[in-house]
Every structure is written in structure tokens, then in C-alpha cells.
């Protein structure tokens, strides 16, 4: 029996999912697999585990496991459920990549989807669990998709063993056809239970103009206007990343301070002292306008306004109180906003995945009396967390996503427009407790150009790393795997071929007809080398380089080169148009300085042949030697942010290598010496081993039929001539054989990240 506090009881009863408890539990008892759909905030994540617990699904020999695509949800949901059930964290626990509080007694376990995938690698039948809940399935993260595919096989296997496992898939949208209309996935179509959402209407306001890049500034202005002009109710702002979140928090705290130590920008907002609250109340009394103006939200019409700057004039409280309020706050600047105004305290909180859990938890508490809550969040607030009391949503329309280079598989984070489905999810956050408003900082025309849904992650990226992970799970015939949405066959074949070439998979026997060969290729088992490569968190090409580098003490160099290749754009771009002659001269000077440094970093003798990779190694070495300061970067044409990112990655890869080679004893040496001549030669072989499919040969004089092949190279992949990029240190040398990191197409096909290699 669960002993819940009266307040929790009351809050639970308001959740729409409570009305469905019986329907849900009957479906689960009668079916091995059940899908539950319900709007964000309807109570899926917090309540379904409790239903199961109370119905006796958890016991000492079998737990309830819940996966989340995000760490922040795994941590905060375990805490919330423990609190609601009045149970200790020893029983309701969480496990994320690097930390957790799981014990022998754990009966409800929240974890990230990656953690469960790793557990399957150790125990394919997941015998520790009686129930697995896959949460946030609509997000279609790659691991979630793979887990659903794996579980579709694990569930029948457990059935056969007489130890049934229940699988529950939860989604915030009704778009679940990829799971239900997919008879390769589930033999019997699982029932879909729809939880009615108690959603209040949300009025959506589009900007007239879409800010070109300063959406952060636009967010700031919008929040200022909402706070000054609109009735009470929490504000939720969607931005794309941690740095943006912090900088907006700082700006807002400065504009609307509510207590001294808040303006310092720290997050350790102490509970407000009674004295301060009293002072605040007094100061409010002296002011003419005591409360924010009230408006009738049901009697609202969007008043057409002039393009953009209708409210540039300073607004006073009196003005607002006396006039109709235009809820469509409009776009554009307002100088007024930057002034600090302590009479209107705003309680500003950041929220993003990597924020410490105790700081994340603050968003769920009521704001200090007399203040308005304003949460500045990344995408985590879109579906995983429901923040109480939000009435206004400010949506920048962007998201930071990982993109993959089709040629190199190198990943990078980029900010792009969200999908229409995401935009609507974000808007929905404003209507949980009463009617709300969503301010979109982009025009309706831009919205119409958004894609309807974001494509499942698995279809948008090269899959060689995923295939390697699956082979590490001993799934040999990847082509037969029941993907909810399969990656394109070409992508699978290309991945398999690359992994064979890298030695991560065992070569198929070269007999039989071509077709059989191809089939065999898509079912090759993993090699011992592949198993090691699978443990490194980088693309297989780079993992191969790492795996080879134990020899001749090359590891620190390979780790650095791989880190630098994974982070893009190490060098500042100085070939940009300048606004004045003065600036032109300045850019010219900086460029000359960078070129000079690059020649120094390129080293001499065999080092020089490593080409651009040696430049990367030399640049990182020099920068670290100087303490990786912003000053050093600016003086030498390095991108400071890139250098910081490389530093982080070096640390991560060093840890990963140490855990495989326990006797390697590697550490990140800020005073790393340049490689010896011998090491430089070895490094070229290592690089060739990883980039073996990226070899290019200079076109010979006798092959020169056409002028377009002058100074050109021939690759295995392309019919057209490719060239060494002018930014390469090997541009003028034109070695006979080179390997390249990637090919980019501008006016011509250019190779970047070039090293010279010798024919065997
Ligand atoms: P769903 O998974 O369907 O999106 P949840 O179970 O996450 O819904 O949330 C249900 C309700 O519980 C929401 O109204 C939310 O405000 C509340 N809630 C969730 N976590 C917390 C928390 N840590 N503190 C207070 N309320 C919370
Ligand atoms: Mg949820």
C-alpha cells in the first residue's frame, strides 16, 4: 500500500490519466505490449509507474524500468515519483551515464535509453525487470528506436521462458503508426490507449518579422513586455543551448531584480527573507499600479499593428492600466526594457539537461510571493518536463541538433528551425492550468515552411557507429532487424562495407554469386578489434585510429588529432568582406599571422607530411601550452570555442582509452611534446588505416587529357577531379598520394584535412 500525503493525493486526482487507471491496467494485464498516448502533463511519466507498483508488478526479483531520452527527465522524474509515493530513493532510483542512486532494493528505476541498451548488451533478456516503459517514444531518438526493435523480440522470448515481460510505450502524440502499422515489429498490433488531455486554449501570436539571428535579444524584449504588460502567470522561454540560457537569465535578472544576490548572476537563489518580502510589498503599495492589469482572455482579438515597431514608445504603467492591452506584443526593440526595474520582480530560473538536479527541481516549486516565475529553458521543457503555472510561452523556433556529415560521419551541433509538431508542443506548455498565450518569434510564413514532423534520427545520419553497436550486441543480420523506421538500405550496406574495411567486422567468405556475397556482407559478425572500437565514443574510422595507437606511444597524439578532427573550424576565417580599408588591412595582417603560425605548427621532415593533421596537432599543442586562453587564440587566429571543445573531448577520449587499456595510464598533458620523427611516420600509417577509403592520387601528366584535371586528384568514390583546398598546408606541394578528412563542394570539389601518404 502506498502512503501518499494529502496534497499529493489532491494533485494526482487532477491528472487526466487517473481517470484511465483501470483501462490502462486492464490493457496491460491482457496484453504483453501496450501503447499509451497522452498530452505532455497528463501524468504518464509520474503515474503509470505508480499504477504498476500498486498492482504488484514490482517485487524483489523484478523491477519496473523506465527509459527517458534525456538525463534531466530520468533524474527529476525518479525524484518526483519517490516523493509522490513517499518512498526512499533506495526504492525509486535513477541511473544515467555517469551517475545514479540504484540499490539492491530498487523497484522503480528511471534511466536514459542508452543505459538500458548497455544493460541489454550484458543481459539480453533483461531478467531483472518485470516491466519496461519506453517513455517519450514520439521523440524517435535513435536509442529509443533501437530499444523498441530489440524489445519486440525480447518480449516473446521472455514469454517462452515463462517469465513474461510487459512493454509499455508512451508517447506525447498520437503519431504512433510506425509502431502499430508495422507487422515486422510486433506480431500482434498492440492496443493504443489515448488519455484525454485537459488542455486549455492557447492563443498563438506570430512575429511580423523573423529576426535574422538575434533571437536571444528578441526573447529578452518579449519577456520584458510580457512581464510589464500582461497579467500574472509564469513565462517559459525556449532557447537552444546552455550558454544562451544563462546569458538571457543574467539579462532578465538585471532588468527585473527581486533581491540583491540575484543580480550577481548566480543560481543559488536563497529563500527570500521575510524582511525582503515585506519591503517589496511596501514598495509596491507606494506605486500607483499595484497589480498587473487584468484582461479578459476570452474576449481577445489580435489587433493589426504597424510593421514591427508599434510599441517603441516608452510605456508607463498608467498607460497600460488605462488602455486596451494588445496581447500581440509585436516585434522589435524597446530601449525602455534595458533599464533596471526593481518594482516588478521576476523570478528567473534556467533549465537545461546538464543543470544540477537540485537546481532543476526549483522550477517545480512556487516562486517567492510577489514575483513572477520565468523559466528559460532548452528543448527539455518541450515534452519531458511539465512546469506548473506557465501561462506564456516564448518560442524562438530553433533547436540545437546534432548533424552528421554524410562523407566523414563527423558530427556537429547546429541550430535549426524546429518542426511544426515541436512548435505546437511548445505552445501547448502554456495551456496546462488556464488559457495561455504563445509568442512565436518568427512569422507565420516561416512556420509554414517548417517540416511537419522531425524525421526519426536513425534516417538522418550515417549508421556505421550504430551498426557497430548492434554487432557488439551480436545482432549479425542488421538488415533483418525490426527497426520502427529502417535506415535506407544503401546506408546499411555502406556502413557494413566500411566496417569490414576497417576490420571491425569479419570478412565474408568470397564464394557464391554476387547477390549472396552482398547478403553475406550484411550479416558479418564483429571482430575482436570491432569490440574494442565499439567502446570509443567516436565514429568507427577514428575509433580504428585510436585502437592502433597503443604502439610507439602514439595515443596522446591520435587522441588530440581525433578530437581536433571531430570539432570543426579550428581557425578563424579572415577572408570575409571588410567594411573599411582599415579593417581590410587588419584582416590581412591577421591572416598573414595565421599562415605563419600554421607553417610553424606544420613542423618539419616527416611531420610536415602529416600535413593539415600536423597543423591541428601543433595548434592544439601550442594553445594548451599557453594555457588555452582566449588571448592566445585571438592572437594566433584560433577559434577559442573550438579549442575549449577539443580540450573537453581529449579528456573524454583519454578516459575511454584508459578504461580499455587499464595499464596505459594516460592523462591529458598540457605540455605535450611534438611527436618524434618516427612517431610522425607511424601517425601517418595510423591515419591511413582509419581513412583508407579516403585516398586520392594525383593525376599523372600522361593522364592529363583535359585542362580541368590540372593539379587534380582522383578518388575511388568520385568521377570528377578533386583538389587540395587552398587553406591546406599541402596546397602547393601536391604529394602523389593523400588521404583526406572530407570533401566539400564549393566552386570545385575540395579535399580538407589532407595528409600525404606513401604507396605501399
Ligand atoms: P506526462 O509524462 O504525461 O507529460 P508527468 O507525469 O510528467 O506528465 O506530469 C504530470 C504532472 O505532475 C504535471 O502537471 C507536472 O506539473 C507535475 N509534476 C511533474 N514533476 C513534478 C515535480 N518534480 N514537482 C511538482 N510537480 C511535478
Ligand atoms: Mg512524460
From TrEMBL:
GO terms for cellular component: nucleolus. It comes from the Eukaryota. Residues 25-192 form the Helicase ATP-binding domain. GO terms for molecular function: ATP binding; helicase activity; hydrolase activity; RNA binding. The keyword Transferase does not apply. Signal peptide: none annotated. GO terms for biological process: maturation of SSU-rRNA from tricistronic rRNA transcript (SSU-rRNA, 5.8S rRNA, LSU-rRNA). Residues 303-342 are annotated as: Disordered. Keywords: ATP-binding, Helicase, Hydrolase, Nucleotide-binding. Residues 222-474 form the Helicase C-terminal domain. Residues 306-339 have a biased composition (Acidic residues). The keyword Hydrolase applies. This is Activating signal cointegrator 1 complex subunit 3. It comes from Mycteria americana (Wood stork). The chain holds residues 199 to 958 of 1112 of the full protein.
Amino acid at each position: 500500500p502506498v502512503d501518499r500525503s494529502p496534497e499529493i493525493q489532491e494533485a494526482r486526482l487532477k491528472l487526466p490519466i487517473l481517470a484511465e487507471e483501470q483501462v490502462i491496467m486492464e490493457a496491460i494485464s491482457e496484453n504483453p505490449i501496450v501503447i499509451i498516448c497522452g498530452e505532455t502533463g497528463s501524468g504518464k511519466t509520474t503515474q503509470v509507474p505508480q499504477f504498476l507498483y500498486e498492482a504488484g508488478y514490482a517485487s524483489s526479483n523484478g523491477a519496473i524500468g523506465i527509459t527517458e531520452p534525456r538525463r534531466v527527465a530520468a533524474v527529476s522524474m525518479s525524484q518526483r515519483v519517490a516523493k509522490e509515493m513517499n518512498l526512499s530513493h533506495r526504492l525509486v532510483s535513477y541511473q544515467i551515464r555517469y551517475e545514479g542512486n540504484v540499490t539492491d532494493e530498487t523497484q522503480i528505476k528511471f534511466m536514459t535509453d542508452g543505459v538500458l541498451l548497455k544493460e541489454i548488451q550484458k543481459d539480453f533478456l533483461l531478467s531483472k525487470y518485470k516491466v519496461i516503459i519506453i517513455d517519450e517514444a514520439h521523440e524517435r531518438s535513435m536509442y529509443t528506436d533501437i530499444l523498441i526493435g530489440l524489445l519486440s523480440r525480447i518480449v516473446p522470448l521472455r514469454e517462452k521462458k515463462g517469465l513474461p515481460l510487459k512493454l509499455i510505450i508512451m508517447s506525447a502524440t498520437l503519431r504512433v503508426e510506425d509502431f502499430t502499422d508495422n507487422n515486422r515489429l510486433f506480431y500482434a498490433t498492440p492496443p493504443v490507449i489515448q488519455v484525454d488531455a485537459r488542455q486549455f486554449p492557447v492563443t498563438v501570436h506570430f512575429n511580423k518579422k523573423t529576426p535574422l539571428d538575434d533571437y536571444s535579444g528578441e526573447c529578452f524584449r518579449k519577456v520584458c513586455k510580457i512581464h510589464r504588460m500582461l497579467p500574472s502567470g509564469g513565462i517559459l522561454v525556449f532557447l537552444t543551448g546552455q550558454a544562451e540560457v544563462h546569458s538571457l537569465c543574467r539579462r532578465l535578472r538585471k532588468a527585473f531584480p527581486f533581491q540583491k544576490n540575484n543580480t550577481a548572476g548566480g543560481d543559488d537563489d536563497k529563500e527570500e527573507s521575510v524582511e525582503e518580502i515585506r519591503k517589496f510589498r511596501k514598495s509596491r503599495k507606494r506605486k500607483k499600479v499595484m497589480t498587473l492589469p487584468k484582461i479578459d482572455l476570452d474576449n481577445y482579438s489580435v489587433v493589426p499593428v504597424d510593421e514591427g515597431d508599434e510599441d517603441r514608445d516608452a510605456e508607463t504603467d498608467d498607460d497600460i492600466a488605462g488602455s486596451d492591452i494588445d496581447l500581440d506584443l509585436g516585434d522589435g526593440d524597446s530601449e525602455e526594457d534595458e533599464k533596471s526595474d526593481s518594482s516588478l520582480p521576476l523570478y528567473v530560473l534556467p533549465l537545461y539537461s546538464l543543470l544540477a538536479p537540485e537546481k532543476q527541481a526549483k522550477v517545480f516549486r512556487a516562486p517567492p510571493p510577489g514575483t513572477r516565475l520565468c523559466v528559460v529553458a532548452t528543448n527539455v521543457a518541450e515534452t519531458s518536463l511539465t512546469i506548473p503555472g506557465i501561462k506564456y510561452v516564448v518560442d524562438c523556433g530553433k533547436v540545437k541538433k546534432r548533424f552528421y556529415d554524410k562523407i566523414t560521419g563527423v558530427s556537429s551541433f547546429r541550430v535549426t528551425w524546429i518542426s511544426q509538431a515541436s512548435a505546437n508542443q511548445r505552445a501547448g506548455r502554456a495551456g496546462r492550468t488556464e488559457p495561455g498565450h504563445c509568442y512565436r518569434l518568427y512569422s507565420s510564413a516561416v512556420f509554414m515552411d517548417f517540416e511537419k514532423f522531425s524525421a526519426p534520427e536513425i534516417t538522418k545520419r550515417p549508421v556505421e557507429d550504430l551498426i557497430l553497436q548492434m554487432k557488439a550486441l551480436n545482432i549479425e543480420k542488421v538488415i533483418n532487424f525490426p527497426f520502427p523506421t529502417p535506415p535506407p538500405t544503401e546506408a546499411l550496406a555502406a556502413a557494413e562495407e566500411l566496417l569490414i574495411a576497417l576490420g571491425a567486422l569479419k570478412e565474408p567468405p568470397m564464394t557464391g554469386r554476387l547477390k549472396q556475397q552482398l547478403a553475406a556482407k550484411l550479416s558479418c559478425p564483429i571482430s575482436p578489434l570491432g569490440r574494442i572500437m565499439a567502446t570509443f565514443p567516436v565514429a568507427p574510422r577514428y575509433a580504428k585510429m585510436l585502437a592502433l595507437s597503443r604502439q610507439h606511444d602514439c595515443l596522446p597524439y591520435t587522441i588530440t588529432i581525433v578530437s581536433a578532427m571531430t570539432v570543426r573550424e579550428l581557425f578563424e576565417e579572415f577572408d570575409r568582406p571588410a567594411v573599411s580599408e582599415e579593417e581590410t588591412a587588419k584582416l590581412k595582417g591577421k591572416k598573414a599571422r595565421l599562415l605563419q603560425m600554421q607553417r610553424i605548427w606544420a613542423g618539419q621532415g616527416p611531420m610536415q607530411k602529416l600535413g593539415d593533421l600536423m597543423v591541428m596537432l601543433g595548434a592544439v599543442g601550442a594553445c594548451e601550452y599557453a594555457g588555452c586562453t582566449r588571448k592566445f587564440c585571438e592572437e594566433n587566429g584560433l577559434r577559442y570555442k573550438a579549442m575549449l571543445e577539443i580540450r573537453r573531448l581529449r579528456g573524454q577520449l583519454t578516459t575511454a582509452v584508459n578504461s580499455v587499456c587499464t595499464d596505459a595510464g594516460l592523462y591529458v598533458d598540457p605540455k605535450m611534446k611534438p611527436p618524434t620523427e618516427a612517431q610522425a611516420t607511424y601517425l601517418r600509417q595510423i591515419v591511413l588505416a582509419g581513412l583508407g577509403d579516403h585516398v586520392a592520387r594525383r593525376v599523372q601528366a600522361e593522364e592529363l587529357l583535359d585542362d580541368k584535371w590540372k593539379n587534380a586528384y582522383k578518388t575511388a568514390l568520385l568521377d570528377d577531379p578533386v583538389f587540395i583546398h587552398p587553406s591546406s598546408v599541402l596546397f602547393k606541394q601536391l604529394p602523389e598520394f593523400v588521404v583526406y578528412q572530407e570533401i566539400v563542394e564549393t566552386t570545385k570539389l575540395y579535399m580538407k584535412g589532407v595528409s600525404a601518404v606513401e604507396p605501399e
